[in-house]
Amino acid sequence: MHIHILGICGTFMAGIALLARAAGHTVSGCDANVYPPMSTQLAEAGIALREGYDPGQLDEFRPDMVVVGNVMSRGRPIVETLLDRELPYTSGPAWLADYVLRGRHVLAVAGTHGKTSTSSLLAWILEHAGLEPGFLIGGIPANFGQSARLGRAPFFVVEADEYDTAFFDKRSKFVHYRPRTLILNNLEFDHADIFPDLAAIQRQFHHLLRTVPGAGLIVANGQDANLTEVLAMGCWTPVEKFGVGDWEARAIAPDGGAFDVHYRSEPQGRVAWTQLGPHNVHNALAALAAARHVGVPTGRAIAALIEFQGVKRRLEARGTVNGVVVYDDFAHHPTAIATTLAGLRARVGDQPIIAVLEPRSNTMKLGVFKDSLAPALAAADAVVLYQAPDLGWDLGMVAAALGPRGQVCDSLDATLAAIHAQTKPGTQVLIMSNGGFGGIHERLLSSLRANATDV
Fold it and tell me: Nearest to residue 19, comparing CAs of 126, 92, 112?
């Protein structure tokens, strides 16, 4: 079967492409923005890519099935051509459910934050235990070097996103997956382009709960009041809680780099690893609980955590030049920004941190979080905000709230210049965006190297 994927470079749809290719299908696809790391791994898998959404692709490839990403909407010529010709089409989540997940033990990871990291942790624990799981993750775990694989039955780990499925299916993606083991990391308001309020998101999460069998397990954050409300709406599955309750961590290092694990007050072992922040400690507890549900002893799971190498674009150190460290992070919600900065601050102490932010998500563009951005950036010594042309509000108000620490730049060149003006040996540059940010990471590292050579 030839599958053509519309919106193939999104993290989820790229994973669908890799799974389809591994299953023996011919795969091609298109996207408006083709950039690494997804474009790289797709090309390496032999998947043909086209930039843009020219309807001529449907004649070029003559696919047997078109998988439609949720970035596509009515009115796009390729969508209208697809419908007019009555070509077979489906959504990414439905294709995954029908062709990959059916008959497997699905372990799903849902929540506003931490889905990618927790899914990566869980997949690695199962791999370390010799279970060879399949997975589809919205990022690239360094231990695997790819975002998706079929694996060996029965286990499959999936990052369960609450975003809508497709233009013809407005349910959240995760209702398609029917997990037997479900992690609920946390729940906050997000995706303002899809959901009018928090209650609407909670209803979708409760729809997910309705799909988990009574013989399964729900692993829930015991410190999240919004999730507690969802569970109170009706739950038919055993629940284990982490943070407080069944699974708890006792800190050994303030930056989250070492902690003791307790299950129902009984010590299970110590994790000493490279990950930062209390949010990653919670991610680890959730993964340990889910792994135990499928038979992995906690001691063995802890050994896997110690060997966990992280996830690309999750506080990923991209390079160090003359003592200046440049990080790439996907954070695009105030809570994620604050927790990432807190973890980095705990690790580097008094070393200066420059936070560089491109507000790029749909919710950010709508200005929903404009009043909470400055407090989220409080741990940084300096903040450089990129005012993209399509951002619908003025970042000057955030910079004003930050005082002399904040500044706004309206071009990538100006953003780079602002970073350079404040770097010295020991500076930590944390670049945050859920897009490519114009390749600013490598541009910064290259210019830092050039300046070091000139000196």
Answer: 92
Q: Is the peptide bond before 154 cis (omega within 30 degrees of 0)?
A: yes
Say if CB 302 and CB 288 are below 8 A apart: yes
The token duo for 279 is 């949010």
| Whether residue 349 is found in the same domain as residue 274 | no
Give me the sheet containing 324-329, strands edge to edge: 316-321, 324-329, 428-432, 353-357, 382-386, 406-409
96 domain-assigned = no
How far is the C-alpha of 447 from the C-alpha of 201, rounded, in Å?
43
Lowest mean pLDDT among 177-186, 327-336, 351-360, 439-448: 327-336
Place of tokens 């003006």: 421
Find out whether the peptide bond into 37 is cis, omega within 30 degrees of 0: yes
Domain membership of residue 311 (yes or no) is no
Has residue 242 been placed in a domain? Answer: yes
Same-domain pairing of 42 and 16: yes
* pLDDT tens digits, one per residue of 385-394: 999 988 888 9
Number of domains in the chain: 3
Residues 6+ apart with CB under 8 A from 350: none
pLDDT at residue 455 in the model = 42
Summarised one tens digit per residue, pLDDT across range 161-213 is 999 999 999 999 999 999 999 999 999 988 878 889 999 999 999 999 999 99
Domain extent for 371: 316-454
Same domain, 215 and 243: yes
